[in-house]
Amino acid sequence: MATSAEIIAVGTELLTPRRVDTNSLTITEHLNEIGIEVAEKHVIGDERARLSDSIRSALQRSEIIILIGGLGPTEDDVTRDAVAAAIGRNLVLDEQQERILRARFQQINRPMAAINLRQAHLIEGAEAIPNPHGTAPGQFIVVDRRAIALLPGPPREMKPMLENELIPRLRKLLPGEIIKTRSFRITGIGESDLDTLIAPVYTKYTNPVTTVLSAPGDLSVHLRAHGASEEEVDALLREVGDPIRELLGQKVYTEDPGEPLEAVVGKLLKDRGATLATAESCTGGLIAYRLTEIAGSSDYFIGGYVTYTEPEKHAVLGVPRELIQIHTAVSEPVAAAMAEGARRRSGATYALSVTGYAGPSGGTEANPVGTVYTAIATADTTRVLRNRWGLGRSRIRTLAAQFALDLVRRTLIAS
Ligand code: ATP
Ligand code: MG
Description:
binds magnesium ion; five-stranded mixed β-sheet; 13 helices
């Protein structure tokens, strides 16, 4: 059974449309890494009574409770008081914290107001978590096998305290468990189709925990397993991960969660000593941008042509004018001619082209908005594929770039 945590973000401003609680996302990420699942999150205004109630109920159900914010010196910073009240302990002035606080004010050459002393009060039995970037120390206390942590609200103060102080403390409390993750990055399938395909495998297991994340044209599946030994955890990840990998086949472009598609394409090109050029219309350079995000891409990416108008397609890529007149610029023959033109001009092993209607206006009856032709030219052949995506200019462009990069990947794997 995994240890479960609850996060309580404190602050009336977090209940307005102007501020969102981002701290809990950072905290969740770090907790997950050590195998702690976040079971609940709450946002409570600066109200002592409501906050105490919320802490009391959290204590009934969660082993770890993390409160963020409300550690300032003013009357509306109520977190210390609320926690003390909820667990029936006093707040006591801590001499060491007082010294640290006074030294800090001296350092910035400002007089310390009496109310600032509130920040030197610790809940009886709590350990102070040093705050190198601010005046409010955090606090950590274990009561009846429940761990409670208080962290300040400003993210730049909170984050180092979380990483350097709180996570190591929580890790010590956990049974000696091993946690490991396995990830798949996937393209060429929609989110619901992906889930239909793999849910029969992963829903049978609560360990590993499986999560599916989705961005346009880019999905990822993460498995996180815990167990008593490395062997046990590896076995679990294989037991669930291998059938998922099998079902997805070549739709999985990497198992490295930090490796984007353009990096995979780059590696494949480099391994084969091959080069690539791009001719882009509706993606306006997005593909070239992504390829050149990768350091060292000049080893395999020769260049990209953004030929947005018809005359440019002719002038730069040598697409015959008649071809455009007969078929329009968004057509299979023009996509092919663009790719072939880019390949000829650059001397690249492979050339990619994209031409389509990103909208919102434009399009024809045969090729409405969302229609995109993608071509890849190699030494022997030119392949053209037609897609029709739903509306949304930015989404269509993103999907078109992703599809084009994946076409290179699939071509390279097959070669
Ligand atoms: P301070 O001593 O600065 O008052 P504090 O611990 O009392 O710190 P808050 O007053 O609650 O913290 O928040 C200070 C600022 O930190 C907020 O104005 C906000 O910008 C940011 N902040 C607070 N909570 C969060 C949160 N959960 N996510 C992101 N930012 C937050
Ligand atoms: Mg405050």
